[in-house]
Amino acid sequence: xxxxxxxxxxxxxxxxxxxxxxxxxxxxxxxxxxxxxxxxxxxxxxxxxxxxxxxxxxxxxxxxxxxxxxxxxxxxxxxxxxxxxxxxxxxxxxxxxxxxxxxxxxxxxxxxxxxxxxxxxxxxxxxxxxxxxxxxxxxxxxxxxxxxxxxxxxxxxxxxxxxxxxxxxxxxxxxxxxxxxxxxxxxxxxxxxxxxxxxxxxxx
Length: 204
What we know:
single chain, 4 helices
């Protein structure tokens, strides 16, 4: 019974250590995460504006209308999001509606032609990607039974991050290599965020 209690206590301590280490890694990646979020916002806003421009000037009767519309919108999936999820406010909306907000720009667009909710949509989509990445990092730390970070060396670039962490595990000392890179996000190419995370066993 005493051994089981001791084992449970150790496990709880390990879980807390891993949670703390996962949070530390998230903080280290925060600057690169911000780059990714900003580029995705830029891309979504550019596609949304291009979509509106195309719809106002294109021939709706053309056989290629929807093919071209989806192309300028960044694909059918993104078109569907940009067309319906931002839920732009219309000037003819019922003022008794709970969604009515007199402070919102007419038809959802500000003076620069942007819908503020497009930015919110980009942030939401980026946050999903980053949250999934953080879960993967924590899962790998648990799988490798990391107990502590001994030392680290990190380097930031214009569009990425490179980190080397020497750690203790229940199976000996190991080295974590963590690399990220943000690609695209400029008007015509959607921002992509790639994270490489792997362990190397240190020689005795």
